[in-house]
Amino acid sequence: MPSFDDPFRRPVDHDSHCCPPGLGAPHADIEAAGAGLPGRRGVLTGGAALVAAGWAAPALADEADDRHGHHGSGKHAERVRLTVLGTTDLHGNVFNWDYYKNAEYDDKAHNDIGIAKVATLVKAARKELRKKKRPHLLLDAGDTIQGTPLAYYYARIAPITKGGEHPMATAMNLLRYDAAALGNHEFNYGIDTLRTWESQLDFPLLGANVLDPATGRPVFRPYVIKKIKAKGRTIKVGILGLVTPGVAIWDKANVGGKLNFNGLVEQAKVFVPELKKRGCDLVIVSAHSGADTSSSYGDALPYPENASTLVAQQVPDIDAILVGHAHVEIPERYVTNEQTGKQVLLCEPYYWGMRLAVMNLTVEYHARKKSWTLVKARSHLLNSNAAKENGKVAKAVRAQHDKVVSYVNAPIGTSTATLSAARSVVEDVPIIDFIQYVQAGAVKAALTGTDATLPVLSEAAPFNRSASFPQGQVSVRDVAGLYIYDNTLLGVRITGADVKAYLEYSAAYFKKQGGAGPYTLDQLTNAVTPQAPTGTPDYNFDSIRGLDKHLTYRIDVGKDVGSRIIDLQYDGQPIDPAAQFVLAVNNYRQSGGGGFPAVKAAPVVYNAQVEIRQLLIDWVTANHTIDQSTFASVDWKLAYNGADVVVS
After folding, report:
1. Which 8-state DSSP code applies to residue 394?
2. pTM tops 0.85, yes or no
3. pLDDT per position as a tens digit, 328-364
4. In this predicted model, which residue has the larger pLDDT, 45 or 449?
5. Distance separating alpha carbons of residues 464 and 483, to the nearest angstrom
6. Could you tell me if 245 and 305 are in contact, meaning their C-beta atoms sit under 8 angstroms apart?
7. What is the 3-state secondary structure (H, E, C) of 625-640?
8. How far, in Å, CA of 278 to CA of 5, rounded?
């Protein structure tokens, strides 16, 4: 069983990388993962669960080569295979449940979600590994406490800062993780909530590049070292945690002036040598940062959002990286380090608990150096849809889940008609108008001085195409399903020229076309799909409308990006580039998320830290009736050379 070797146990001093006063203390020691979870009747366990999930063929390959050295390493050189199990982007999913549909989760690929299912795979894997007397670790790569009504409820409705344990702490502690990296969404509910959740974990929460502005030192543990006993010897494994620096933009209201975020490469260059100096035979990075280098915020920060490949390329002595943040499947990828020529293994297990990463790291003992060296690294993913939920995890969280199900299904108003977001990416639909209307109204009501005389506009994006309000009773989950992110509302002062630039940027969502159609949605848009994972997310297609007067425009999909917005008018007249407006905008967009122009540098005239989702829920609760005649209008259309585009 692994044991702990942690320099952050000692009191804070000038040589330790601990938390500065006022932001919390280092986590206490824990017992590392090792024991399995109690099962229940009917749960797939052992070899059956693993074979169904995709374990057997890749996991059992090259067994003989793992047992003995080859290629000049000596006929009887000792080898040990360390298996690293990994999750990422769990986003508050414990059960295979869709709170917005009030039904079991399902998608076109019939994926299952939730840590309760992952727990069954982990238990089965541990059982198989113990049979073979192989050591193992369990890691996570971040984004854990945001993403479902379950997570929201215990951050905002019954916050853990006022007592009670977070359901994700309960579930993860039962799995006995060895360590987890911070994700960017860990900061969504503020530092107090994050620190409370951290205090409830039985394992360290790592963030080497989250720094104290005054000292430049990490305020979370940067790494942990595990000592693993194997064949009478000790293998020292260093685990380094890193998070995308985009937190500085996306959660500026929570972290601005309190925390700095360095680049992943820059901070790995500090701590990987330290881990090697401390005698680590293996260095594993848990990185909440995608593998394919890009930044949704453009050049707003000097560090890229997705940098795992860069870390592998530019920082020597890393053996493997558990990748998170991008919500993609990477069963096995190798990146060559530019200095050493060494192949670094990367693996990303999708998101929401759909997959479990299995990284097999074979090390060989060198008697002369009295150390272990990596000689082989392979990885694959296990599919959670092959396993039933673990009974102990399910039982531990069931009461909290049931409470949230009751909360989200409570009726709060009625809708006079069915409103759907299904075609919101190609049409100006009333349900998106509803978001814009409520946002604009809230901002206008709060404006003072000369800003109160300015016309108010409002932006919104189609976050969830499956969202709808039924005709009749509308519940909390109906409204929450429309606005699935925990964004807050701001108002910024912009010009007519800024409006044009903003809409031109948004119009890049569409593919250039050679006619007016008819087209399917997929033919018309650059939207992210399983077949086009590098496309534009729906949440980066914004439309804008006016509150008291209409803002109207057309998007000509026959024109090049940057020249697509035509007939842009305010109150029936061509918009004045110099005219001033107040734009109601979410904090993600205002802080640079998506790279939209103008709004990041625009003067902020309203910022009451009101969550937009709760604002929508409160509006329905207060007004009782959602009548589209109050807010709906067709203010934008798709066009080709003057003709309306036909979309099937």
Report:
1. H
2. no
3. 999 999 999 999 999 999 999 999 999 999 999 999 9
4. 449
5. 7
6. yes
7. EECHHHCCCCCEEEEE
8. 10
Structure tokens at 487: 């964004």
Return d(Cα 149, Cα 367) in angstroms, integer: 54
> Closest Cα to residue 5, out of 278, 322, 267?
278
CA gap 133, 131 in Å, rounded: 5
Residue type, 388: K
How far is it, in rounded angstroms, from Cα 315 to Cα 302?
Answer: 18
- Cα(169)–Cα(197) distance, rounded to whole angstroms? 7
Helices 167-175, 391-408: axis angle to 10 degrees equals: 170
Q: Give the Cα separation of 36 and 30 in Å (integer).
A: 16
Q: Which of 403, 579, 576, 604 is nearest to 488 (CA)?
A: 604
C-alpha radius of gyration, the chain, whole number:
26
| pLDDT at 620 > cutoff 50 | yes
- HEC assignment per residue over 546-603: ECCCCEEEEEECCCCCCCCEEEEEECCEECCCCCEEEEEEEHHHHCCCCCCCCCCCCC
Closest C-alpha among 411, 389, 388 to residue 401: 389
In the 8-state DSSP scheme, what is residue 334? Answer: E
125: helix, strand or coil: helix
pLDDT tens digits, residue range 380-431? 999 999 999 999 999 999 999 999 999 999 999 999 999 999 999 999 999 9
* Residue 499 scores a pLDDT above 80: yes
**Residues 428, 636: contact at Cβ < 8 Å?**
yes
Structure tokens at 585: 């905008």
Per-residue b/e over 200-237, b at no fewer than 16 CB within 10 Å?
Answer: bbbbbbbbbbbbbeeeeebbbbbbbbbebebeeeebbb
Mean pLDDT of the chain: 89
DSSP single-letter state for residue 26? P
Q: Are 284 and 302 in contact, with CB atoms under 8 Å apart?
A: no
Q: Which residue has the higher pLDDT, 252 or 382?
A: 382
Of 498, 449, 504, 492, the C-alpha closest to 583 is 492
Residues 6+ apart with CB under 8 A from 585: 458, 459, 489, 490, 491, 492, 599
